[in-house]
Write a structure and sequence with these properties.
The chain has 249 residues and is α/β, with parallel strands linked by helices. It has 2 domains: 170 residues, 3-Layer(aba) Sandwich (Rossmann fold); 70 residues. A 6-stranded mixed sheet has the order 6-7-8-4-9-10, sandwiched between helices. It has a 4-stranded antiparallel sheet with strand order 2-3-1-5, covered by helices on one side. Strand 2 and strand 3 form a beta hairpin. It is globular. The two termini are 34 Å apart. The structure holds adenosine-5'-triphosphate. Adenosine-5'-triphosphate (ATP) binds next to strand 1, strand 3 and helix 2. InterPro entries: AAA+_ATPase (IPR003593), ABC_transporter-like_ATP-bd (IPR003439), ABC_transporter-like_CS (IPR017871), ABC_transpr_TagH-like (IPR015860), Bact_Polysacc_Export_ATP-bd (IPR050683), P-loop_NTPase (IPR027417). Belongs to the ABC transporter superfamily. One of its GO terms (molecular function) is ATP hydrolysis activity.
């Protein structure tokens, strides 16, 4: 395709395989993968089985598939949190996974967590200070920002996390299911922010079970099923095929 040749590739996923090895007593094996029991009592879950695609700048790519199909594993492998057992991921810059959750502390105020989350995402202290007002405003938590995070509802926590992570332009941003937690109005605002990041030459991956969010945000969709990429193409085509598959299986 001539048009494709002119776009700058930012992520190349090449024949990516991820296998999790879990002790049989472990809790990590999900219902959809077929665990293989080895003689030593270790199960292997083949979560990604040779997934390949190229993502270009200015694309926003939806990642869909039923529970346990490998979506989060793919995102974690793209940011380097989960090592591939085969194949490779190449990226023009480090992808950022939106989900500063692990870094935030429930006993600290929203205010302190903005600093903590910002640092965890690699922002400089001065950048966080400059972005503070914008983050509070986007999260709409002005009246609650001095309270400990444990007093926030899950939707309020999700809003703060999204506001921190989306406060800066990212070259490659991965949003894993974050949008489904806030209310309708916040979802619409976050979708708008994702489109803005994409329009400013970023590439956005959105993992979601909400086909409305996917349709509203993405121009291309990757559909995973049991660790394999079954379809990669324009949003409407892939979502329609996925919904048909779900209604018949
Ligand atoms: N840390 C882990 N250890 C062992 N197995 C894992 C681990 N993480 C995921 N898996 C398994 O890998 C498979 C893919 O899981 P993954 O979380 O990538 O799916 P997903 O498509 O993101 O699912 P969901 O829609 O439910 O979030 C599942 O069978 C799951 O049980």
């Amino acid at each position: 395709m001539a048009a494709t040749d002119h776009r700058r590739p930012v992520v190349v996923v090449d024949e990516l395989h991820v296998e999790y090895k879990v002790y049989a007593s472990g809790k990590a094996v999900g219902p959809n993968a077929k665990p293989v029991r080895s003689p030593r009592g270790i199960r292997t879950v083949h979560a990604l089985k040779g997934v390949s695609f190229v993502a270009y700048e200015n694309e926003s790519i939806g990642v869909i598939g039923s529970n346990g199909s490998g979506k989060s594993t793919l995102m974690r492998a793209m940011v380097g949190l989960t090592p591939p057992s085969g194949g490779a991921v190449y990226a023009s810059s480090r992808p950022n996974l939106l989900g500063v959750g692990a870094a935030l502390l429930p006993d600290l105020s929203g205010e302190r967590n903005i600093v903590l989350g910002g640092l965890a995402l690699g922002f400089k202290k001065s950048e966080i200070t400059a972005l503070r007002d914008q983050i509070v405003e986007f999260s709409e938590l002005q009246d609650f920002i001095d309270l400990p995070m444990r007093t926030y509802s899950s939707g309020m926590q999700a809003r703060l996390k999204f506001a921190i992570a989306a406060s800066q332009q990212h070259d490659i941003l991965i949003v894993d299911e974050a949008l489904s937690v806030g209310d309708k109005r916040f979802q619409a605002r976050s979708e708008g922010r994702i489109r803005e990041i994409r329009d400013n030459a970023g590439t956005v991956f959105l993992v979601s079970h909400s086909m409305a969010s996917i349709r509203g945000t993405c121009d291309r969709v990757i559909w995973l099923k049991k660790g394999e990429l079954v379809m990669d193409g324009p949003t409407d085509e892939v979502v329609t095929a996925y919904e048909l598959d779900r209604s018949t299986s």
